[in-house]
Write a structure and sequence with these properties.
With 272 residues, the protein is α/β, with parallel strands linked by helices. The protein has one domain: HUPs (Rossmann fold). It is 34% helix and 17% strand. The protein contains 9 helices and 10 strands. A 6-stranded parallel beta sheet has the order 5-4-3-8-9-10, with helices on both faces. It has a two-stranded antiparallel sheet with strand order 1-2. A two-stranded antiparallel sheet has the order 6-7. Helix 2 packs antiparallel against helix 8. The protein is globular, with a radius of gyration of 19 Å. 38% of the residues are buried. About 2% of the residues have low confidence.
């Protein structure tokens, strides 16, 4: 654990943090299957419908093509130390993610990663989920009451796999830990040659599951931010609650970025 003073988000610190289990399936529906939890790490600045759709696409694909049973899904927003262009504060991004999954029965938002002031590698974030699910909780029960170890896997777009295949961008030991120990479910994205990206990751190919989009969706947070800077509509690209939150807090406009840290966070309900 870092020696730095921990961050606080929405009144929660690492000392008071609790792993969210309200939407985690408590008992396997099919005991012949292996319980699987999907973890999406990213900026989510802002979260879009595609971020949500990849969970639903993965849910269907896993059910029809694997021996896993999805028992939960988690969004893990990156912390403020990431320093990426266009990155709203972790507090805003956590709030937007919570609004986006408000109606989901199985996708949760985990604050553990953004509660750290330092940047956390993806491998360490997946270790956190493995610890919470298998060491703290002992896994997921089957119908006999026996605990089964949960398989934790990364869920991401093909653009992430493309970065993993870029020389010297990821630490080799992190790649081996993520793809070798955990595995990844990758949803294809327009403009990404997934076969080319996978060519240099062949040693982990059996642990990388590629999900093809049946309905093409190429919305991205970068494009959403561009639309907002140009004062263009983002409706039906982003959940309505998230749009209202962005408007209430004046996020992603030049003026809003200057004033973001100067005032209190406004709730989505304060903006029509």
């Amino acid at each position: 654990m870092s020696q730095q003073e921990p961050a606080t988000q929405n009144g929660v610190s690492l000392a008071t943090y609790e792993f969210p289990t309200q939407r985690l399936k408590k008992v396997l529906s099919d005991s012949s299957r292996t319980p699987l939890v999907l973890v999406a790490c990213g900026s989510f600045s802002p979260i879009t419908y595609l971020h949500l759709r990849i969970f639903e696409m993965a849910l269907d694909w896993v059910r029809y093509n694997t021996e896993f049973e999805v028992v939960g899904g988690y969004l893990s927003p990156v912390g403020d130390a990431y320093k990426k262009a266009g990155l709203a504060s972790a507090e805003h991004r956590i709030n937007m993610c919570n609004l986006a999954v408000a109606d989901s029965s199985w996708i949760s938002v985990d604050q553990w990663e953004p509660l750290h002031k330092e940047y956390l590698p993806t491998a360490k974030v997946l270790d956190h989920f493995d610890h919470e699910l298998n060491e703290v909780r002992g896994g997921i029960e089957d119908y006999t009451g026996q605990k089964r170890k949960v398989r934790v896997a990364l869920l991401a777009g093909a653009d992430l796999i493309q970065t993993m295949s870029t020389p010297n961008l990821w630490a080799p030991k992190d790649l081996d830990h993520i793809l070798g120990h955990y595995g990844a479910f990758i949803v294809e994205r327009e403009g990404t040659d997934i076969d080319d990206a996978l060519a240099s990751l062949q040693q982990w190919r059996d642990n990388i599951y590629v999900i093809h989009q049946l309905v093409k969706n190429d919305v991205s947070s970068t494009r959403i931010r561009l639309f907002l800077k140009r004062d263009m509509s983002i409706r039906y690209l982003v959940p309505e609650g998230v749009i209202k939150y962005i408007e209430a807090n004046r996020l992603y406009s030049d003026e809003g970025e200057k004033k973001e840290d100067n005032g209190k966070v406004a709730s989505a309900s304060s903006s029509s």
